[in-house]
Amino acid sequence: MADVGEVLMSALSTIRVPKPGDRVHKDECALSFSTPESEGGLYLCMNSFLGFGSQYVDRHHARSGQRAYLHITRIRKAKKEDDSNSGSGHPPKKKPTRLAIGIEGGFDVEQDQYEEDVKVVILPDRQEVTSEDLATMPDVVRERVSLSMAGIMAADSVSHALQVQQWDGEVRQESRHAADLKQLDNGLKIPPSGWRCEVCDLQENLWMNLTDGKVLCGRRYFDGSGGNNHALLHFQETGYPLAVKLGTITPDGADVYSYDEDDMVLDSKLPEHLSHFGIDMMTMEKTERTMTELEIAVNQRVGEWEVIQESGTTLRPLFGPGLTGMKNLGNSCYLNSVMQVLFTIPDFQNKYVSNIDKIINEAPSDPTQDFKTQVAKLGYGLLSGEYSKPTTDSGNENGASEPRGDQLGIAPQMFKALIGRGHPEFSTNRQQDAQEFLLHFINMVERNCRSGPNPSEAFRFLVEERIVCQQSQKAKYTQRVDYIVQLPVPMDQATNTDELQEAERRREEGDTSAPTVRAQIPFTACMAALSEPETLTDFWSSAVQAKTTATKTTRFASFSDYLVIQIKKFTFGLDWVPKKLDVSIDVPDTLDLSALRATGQQPGEELLPEVAPPPLMTPDVEVKGILGSHGNEEDDSLYSPLLSPVLDDSTVSQLCEMGFPLEACRKAVYYTGNTGIDAAMNWIMSHMDDPDFSAPLVLPGCSSGPGTTPTESLSEEHLATIVSMGFSRDQATKALRATSNVLDRAVDWIFSHLDDLESMDVSEGGRSAAESEGGRDPPPGPRVRDGEGKYELFAFISHMGTSTMCGHYVCHIKKDQQWVIFNDQKVCASEKPPKDLGYLYFYRRVAE
């Protein structure tokens, strides 16, 4: 064996010192979930700074020729006994006093202490070089290797850079209203105690408006507790922006809320504003929990296992293949729950896990940026059982260690970074909607499965919409692809209306002992609301060439292998504030949707003529493009692009005030025929994810104009770029024309309209099938599977909290006839799965 110094000298040219911007993966293997704490440690390539577990480092050496690796191993230090330890084997529970993370007084991040060992390893013989060995080597070797080692260890790892290390929820901004707040000289003086809401006599959660001194109750929480919204309603009536929470006033300050800024704020003139109503801050004592303390209590509960224990039952931890927990990376429970469910489906297992060796062998030089590799890595981590092992407390000074209820689990840091890259929401550490993430992931799978098996086909089904003109009785049929059934919640169908009304009455009377009553909604009522015909009052009928009334019926044109049902719990109130419906729905274990199978055109039924409706026009605009007026036979455009639509300006303004883009608001009003704010808002909520959501409104029949680009002006470079991705020139042209010749938008558009482009099938050389075959065969429709509409429930995802932007997600999955609850790192046998409180339900087809 060659001298280690000579070997290191021969590899010296490949050893780099990390520069700013280099991605250093020193916490996680690129191909597995091995870490420096894992058996065998982590090998970091000293050239590419990619990390590899002991089972993959030889493979990387063979493929890359790289020989020098930094071997990092960590062993947790023994903990000293702590008097504050509860004695239950859990870490000391120091009570937080600040709504913060990683800051003195905030939530403890519970960072373990490690003994770290670092040395250079030279492959293929795995010769080791320690810091002591370097001291005896030539200066040029010692300096180069030492600088590289020091740079690697000092650099922030990629996972560290992606995480929020410190967060302080108490950092508040000065209110813009504080300096010049108007206060009414109404002679009102507020006593130091004995407060009641002036509307409902509630005696807690009271807020005093700093403009007129009105004492009113705070907001009602999703579970019915809190107040009755009277302070908020007062602001909406008067516009007086600031209120102080009574009972939180001390010489050090108080809770001040700005309704206009919709946040807790600072008021530098608070002593002056309080003295206006006879309140002396220096003599006041705290009698109510501050908003910070309330939020701390909520966050403590959300993070605890006890929150989701079923009726106080002690849950039995489970370990083994398919029972692997996932670490919460900071509001990543939505991702954890969705991926746990998806990898119980054979399509995803076969696509990624069964082929993991082939996928890894074909991975690019930087596998951290490869979608297929990272999905396969995650799937294998969840299903193999290698990481489904109990966490043990590091031994105390006496060497003892105890098993804990949670697992080592896996931390999907690379996966989350890759799947969220470039996305305005999923790239952040904020809480997200699990349903939106599911659709986002399916879209990513679609993009990356243009050839070979596509596991997302398991969810894909066709929806048929039948519209019947009531005047002519002629029908129109359209089909669309969907992946999720959105089930409405008809609150008026609650079976316990009397109990709900009684609880509401007691709350309005200020009865703090009133029980929380949850609306009981029959599942059959939800299905009836989904399937019942919808009346369209302003339907433009091509048969009668006028607006009339029509009915729309929605049915399944195909039944997918797996069916996802979303309970539409999240909605908007009359003030367009998001809210969550607190309901219990008796979701069945088995489901038969055969009666909702679409039948297509009926015998003897006439179809509506395929004629487009005329655009909305202002009465004083001359119709220049209509044949027979000012057009000519060579003009193949039916309408002039100069026509301007009639839009209800007040509706457009209301939508803009809600923060939506102007062009999106104009399109919402146009496409809903000026039928009002409700219809326009529904259109916006249904189209927010469209790539051209904010693109300018384009009138039907316009050959060019805002949002379209004539073919002759398209960038050849942009066309070539899209064609090189495997699409035809026709498809590339269509995408660029739909997105004003903007390449990035065109790529997003083409991937989000794959089903629409199926008729422009791709063939060799970038030409469409129509070009190469002369278009002899009819264009194929989207690929869907079909079968019986009978299903059985196998998983559901539940949400706790007031909206999708906060709270916590867990999932229940049925494995071998046993319900299992997955709560991030904790995986346990479920005794009483709360199937009536789910948000997303997953059904699989029952085999005949």
From TrEMBL:
**Domain spans labelled UBP-type:** 173-281
The biased composition feature labelled Low complexity covers 763-772
Q: Where is the active site?
A: C333 (nucleophile), H808 (proton acceptor)
Which parts of the sequence bind Zn(2+)? C197, C200, C217, H230
Tell me the enzyme class: hydrolase
Bias (Polar residues): 389-399
One GO BP annotation of this record: protein deubiquitination
Q: Which amino acid positions bind substrate, per UniProt?
A: W207, R219, R220, Y221, F222, Y257, Y259, D262
Q: Which stretches make up the USP domain?
A: 324-846
CDD domains linked: Peptidase_C19B, UBA1_UBP5_like, UBA2_UBP5
Question: Is Zinc-finger given among the entry's keywords?
Answer: yes
Concerning PROSITE patterns, the annotation shows: UBA, USP_1, USP_2, USP_3, ZF_UBP
Q: Where is this region: Disordered?
A: 77-98, 387-407, 494-515, 762-785
EC numbers, comma separated: 3.4.19.12
Q: What keywords appear on the UniProt entry?
A: Hydrolase, Metal-binding, Protease, Repeat, Thiol protease, Ubl conjugation pathway, Zinc, Zinc-finger
Give the GO molecular function terms.
cysteine-type deubiquitinase activity; zinc ion binding
Reaction catalyzed: Thiol-dependent hydrolysis of ester, thioester, amide, peptide and isopeptide bonds formed by the C-terminal Gly of ubiquitin (a 76-residue protein attached to proteins as an intracellular targeting signal)
Q: Name one Pfam family in it.
A: zf-UBP
Give the record's family classification: Belongs to the peptidase C19 family.
Q: What is this protein called?
A: Ubiquitin carboxyl-terminal hydrolase
**What is the source species?**
Betta splendens
Q: What is the lineage of its organism?
A: Eukaryota, Metazoa, Chordata, Craniata, Vertebrata
